[in-house]
């Protein structure tokens, strides 16, 4: 007979993932053992194995859930913007704000997404990489809708990656509770895009 899961099983897994992400960011994924993760979670290795059968399983669940969360944010922003009658430009601004709001509370998970995908087995790695490609494609699509007069087939990818370059590395310097808040920074990013992309193309 299969063992019945405790009512808090999912909450325990989420807590393990949060603490594991912090540990991976602190000591690197390759240098972290199941014993280290058990200690960080305040539990025993035996109990940790009750939830995950390996360090690799923890990493995949961490990245799988996080990329699903980012895709859900995109869907939520697009759906909410449509219901509220926002313009395409306003929708893209909402997308930037929503991602930075998520990044504010997901420092360690974001570090794992940027640094540790390569440690997954191929089948799992492709799942996460495909979802990352979908995220980039969604940003590119919405950016083109927001600034159709400036975004072309030739520059769509560079401009999209420019946006990610501005927001994806905030964990290295932007601290929650600091003088510059995440939403303040989002406003600055949006202002830079507005000033740079809404202008007419300059004549050489």
Quick description:
The chain is mostly helical and 204 residues long. 70% of the residues lie in helices and 0% in strands.
Overview of this structure, please?
The chain has a domain at 55-196: Orthogonal Bundle (Tetracycline Repressor, domain 2), CATH 1.10.357. It is built from nine helices and no strands. The chain has helices at residues 9-27, 34-40, 45-51, 55-84, 88-104, 107-115, 122-146, 156-167, 182-197. Helix 1 packs across helix 6 (107-115), helix 4 packs parallel to helix 7 and helix 5 (88-104) packs antiparallel against helix 9. The chain is elongated and about 60 Å long. The protein starts with 8 loop residues before the first helix and ends in a 7-residue tail after the last helix. The model has no long low-confidence stretch (mean pLDDT 92).
Task: Please write out the topology.
Blueprint: H1 9-27, H2 34-40, H3 45-51, H4 55-84, H5 88-104, H6 107-115, H7 122-146, H8 156-167, H9 182-197
Helix pairs in contact: 1-4, 1-6, 4-5, 4-6, 4-7, 5-7, 5-9, 7-8
